[in-house]
Design brief:
TIM Barrel, 243 residues, 39% helix, eight-stranded parallel β-barrel, single chain, globular, alpha/beta, 11 helices
Length: 243
């Protein structure tokens, strides 16, 4: 199982939000590239980069910061936040990121997702963020009026191999990952799922491991590694070696 340290960017800074609420922001670093270097040094092989300004605006806003990160470290990365056109996808991939995460556009324009999967095979990931099982879009501020499971199935059918599933009610709360809903999404969709939201400690990593066979291939860790409730190196060791 892969461990994905998250670097959420707002105004060029590394921040964390509580349940996606922009009014409940904690700044952890003025230099996201330094955080990226730290997580790389602690064993990270794949970083999860999010442009929070982009998610709200509908177009990427922190690409200069992404360039700094990519010039600082040699590490695989996935990037999301406001990527909603083919031009956006091309621009982000041209920076050197490994994968692009599509979110709101998966609800609004699934045909674009299908085309992107054809053009950039293996480099398109879909992020499904949900409240009570219903997809939220546009920086989590608007209901997508579709069940997460149904959207996941549709995305897998058009060629999406990996889906990031975030339980918004748990994101940034350190209240524990929603193992049951994540495993259900994996079984129902047929896609590989990356769990996100609520991870607090090694117990959360351990709880996910039995569901690798169902399709949970990784987990995003954010606030826990910034607050120190989870040691990244220990989490990576557990994910790689404990079976």
């Amino acid at each position: 199982m892969k461990i994905y340290p998250a670097i959420d960017i707002r105004g060029g800074k590394c921040v964390r939000l509580l349940k996606g609420d922009f009014a409940q922001e904690t700044v952890f670093s003025d230099a996201p590239e330094e955080m990226a270097a730290r997580w790389k040094a602690e064993g990270a092989e794949f970083l999860h980069l999010v442009d929070l300004d982009g998610a709200k605006a509908g177009t990427p806003k922190n690409l200069d910061t992404i360039r700094k990160i990519l010039s600082t470290i040699d590490c695989k990365t996935e990037f999301g936040g406001g990527v909603r056109t083919m031009e956006d996808i091309e621009a982000v991939l041209s920076l050197g990121v490994s994968r692009v995460i599509l979110g709101s556009v998966a609800v609004k324009n699934p045909a674009l997702v299908e085309e992107a999967c054809r053009r950039f095979e293996g480099r398109i990931v879909v992020g499904i963020d949900a409240k009570n099982g219903i997809v939220a879009i546009d920086g989590w501020g608007v209901s997508g009026d579709i069940e997460a499971t149904l959207l996941a199935k549709k995305m897998h059918e058009v060629g999406v191999g990996i889906i990031i599933y975030t339980d918004i009610s748990r994101d940034g709360t350190l209240s524990g990952v929603n193992v049951e809903a994540t495993a259900h999404l994996a079984r129902e969709s047929g896609a590989k799922i990356i769990a996100s939201g609520g991870v607090k400690s090694l117990a959360d990593i351990e709880a996910l491991l039995p569901y690798e066979a169902d399709g949970i291939e990784g987990v995003i860790v954010g606030k826990s590694i910034y607050m120190g409730t989870l040691d990244l190196n220990s989490a990576i060791h557990m994910a790689n070696h404990k079976r």
